[in-house]
Amino acid sequence: MWAIRAMEHAEVYFNILCSVDPKLLRLTPHDDSIYKDFREEFPDLQVDKLKEGDLKTAEAKQKWRPFCERFQGVIEDYNFGTLLRLNSSGEYSEDNTVLVTRIQFYAIELTRNREGINDSVRKKFKPRSKTAQ
């Protein structure tokens, strides 16, 4: 069930990116705090093209864990499994998607939106309509 929810979340988010100027998006009521804390904790992380190792190695997990735990009780489902595009210029696909916590998704996507990295998505892709099942 969580996989279906994660995929639906990814589809909705990507359609929004294709439709709206990403700089105008608000993902949570705590966007400013998430972005500020993320850039203080990860000032050099290049969020345009991530590698799975930026998120999944033992060293990366050790650094991410305290960041994520700051948002326990602040962000609903902060540790819920969420899909993230590794390369911000691409769509969700098997090769371009990694499972992260919801707060990691928010931190990275807020940064991509605020720093103009997601701007190309709207120019490159069109929103997808849901197909009848």
Automatic annotation (TrEMBL):
A Pfam family annotated for this UniProt entry: PBDC1
Origin superkingdom: Eukaryota
Coiled-coil ranges from the UniProt annotation: none
Matches recorded under Gene3D superfamilies: yst0336 like domain
Annotated ranges, domain Polysaccharide biosynthesis: 1-122
InterPro entries: PBDC1-like_dom_sf (IPR023139), PBDC1_metazoa/fungi (IPR008476), Polysacc_synth_dom (IPR021148)
Record-linked PANTHER family: PROTEIN PBDC1 (PTHR13410:SF9)
Protein name per Swiss-Prot or TrEMBL: Polysaccharide biosynthesis domain-containing protein
Species, as recorded: Dryococelus australis
